[in-house]
Design goal:
Layout (H helix, E strand, L loop, with lengths): L1 H17 L4 H23 L1 E13 L5 E3 L7 E9 H9 L4 E4 L6 E6 L12 E6 L2 E17 L2 E2 L6 E9 L2 E7 H5 L4 E3 L2 E2 L7 E8 L2 H7 L3 E10 L1 E14 L7 E2 L2 E9 H4 L9 E6 L7 E4 L1 E4 L4 H4 L2 E6 L2 E4 L11 H10 L12 H7 L1
Parallel strand pairs: 1-4, 7-11, 8-12, 15-18
Antiparallel strand pairs: 1-3, 2-7, 3-6, 5-7, 7-10, 9-14, 11-13, 13-14, 15-17, 16-22, 17-21, 18-20, 19-22
Helix pairs in contact: 1-2
Amino acid sequence: MEKLVQQTYQLLSRVARATWWSKDWLIKLLSLGLGIFLWYFVAGADQVDSTITMPIELVNLPTDLVIANPSFKQEIEVSLRGPRSLVQGARDQHLSRRVDLSKVQPGPFTIQNTSDTINLPRGLSLVRLQPTNIVLQLDRLSQKNLPIHPVTEGVLTPGYALRHITLSPDNIRVSGPKTLLDSIATLQTKAIDINGLRDTTTKQVPVTIPPELLELIGETVVGATIEIGLHMQQLRLENISVETVPPEAASRILPKTVSVEALLPVKLLLGKNKPSQLLRAVVIVPDNGEAKTLPVTVQTTGTDKESREIKILEVSPAQVQLAPPAPAPTPPTEAGAKKAAAAEPETPAKKPPPTTKDKKSDR
């Protein structure tokens, strides 16, 4: 380009030397030619087409409304034409498509993208834009507490049972579109592994969040306290013998057996002992020995952890009758002894067996 300008200048200089034009006039003519050439070069020869991404900028959204489809397309593609420098300048300016939502109502709202809605710098022209329409779903802003329910998987150690699972927190407060929140009643944890557990334990458990809620509350983790206890079975044990304290009073109580309704650990039932051998019924007999009704106390025969978990539900009968003691025999008096002796019939004396001498005399 510089060579072309030099050649043009040399040509005009030769013309100037051959004519009577002044030197100032030649400079002005040269400037005019260079201006026309540069204008043609910038305005015509350096025109480029380029596509830029323009974000959607939402403004003035009412505070009681929320966008119910946050995954809507949040940018448009705009194809521009113009000088390279202006196109590059448009990129550097980070242009956006501004949308005023001050007058919107709940429901669908269409954003129409046209050349009139795109503000471009002077010197640039719009060739194409897409998408031409973007639909927003607007809804009332609502808040709701969603309870969280635990989910388990696996099998406990035989003889043990899951008593309860306590979550902390046990609910999540969510703010979002009313229609969406009305369609969700509860949340669940991911599966809690209880396989082989036999003691109460605490774990951190993630919550299963539906995709439509994930953008509102994100990933959530709660604490889960898993309460494990012995597996209990309700049984009715018949004919449990009633023991007395002191033992010699056992003959004076009625009835001598009771029935017991109890919750027993299955682990004990799997042992060698019979269920009736796990309990004993006891009655405390007072020293005064009077006839009365006495309560029956049922105790466990073992002292291990499992035996201490036995729960007595019912004892039938709950009381026994204590009979009065038999009267002690009175010692006989002297007059009574004589009277008893007189009343007894006399027993004839037995003859002694005959001797040899007696037998000879008889002959």
